[in-house]
Amino acid sequence: MKSNFLTVIIIAMFLLLVFSTISENPLYHVNWALCSVIILGLAMLAFFWSFEKSEAVSKEVVLIATMASLAAISRVPFVVIMGLQPTTFIVMITGYVFGTRTGFMVGAVAALVSNFFLGQGPWTPWQMFCWGMCGVAAGLLAGRDKEFQLIKFTVLGGICGYLFGWTMNIWHWVGFIYPLTLKTFLATYIASIAFDTLHALGNIVFSMIFGRSFYNVLMRFKKKILVRFLASDNLVK
After folding, report:
1. Which of 53, 105, 141, 235 stands 20 to 30 A from 164 (CA)?
2. pTM
3. Is residue 112 domain-resident?
């Protein structure tokens, strides 16, 4: 279900970009900023509905609330430095240890909660989606690795720093830039290079300094909440 919704989102975003830059098409004057918020808002509802219907235990809910709060509050002190914040790292290390579902939920909730301090707006669903997908990417990277792969995780952190900024640029472009042309699209991305680079470098530094310690702490907690089922023939009668 999640993969189907993700595919729909990607296709919708691609069509959004295409129709936004063609002035001759009849949909050129559509409010694409509003359309994008609606699309991502529906996607967020789908993910949250999927989680609501899943068999999540109370300890997992507590974990998501705790890590999302940590990721959200850690963003506030760094707001004066555009692009630099440990939120992406915290979301990714959670996804790396606990999987894609938990990683996405922590990222989405962290964006929503932190914006109660920094300001809610139509950009919130975009941030929820971007940070959620950072958690998903880290969860996919972990795979079946039994040990923490610091180098791979650090490299992914740098990549996610750029991907986060490039995705948010779409919102900035359709929401604040006029006219929507290929020229203004490229200009928007060029203007964000410094901020995206700072975000990527921050992810790399946080990963190198805190990656292994966070991983060890979260793994110990994961072992405590892990439920193992024993076959009946192994039980003493």
Report:
1. 53
2. 0.80
3. yes
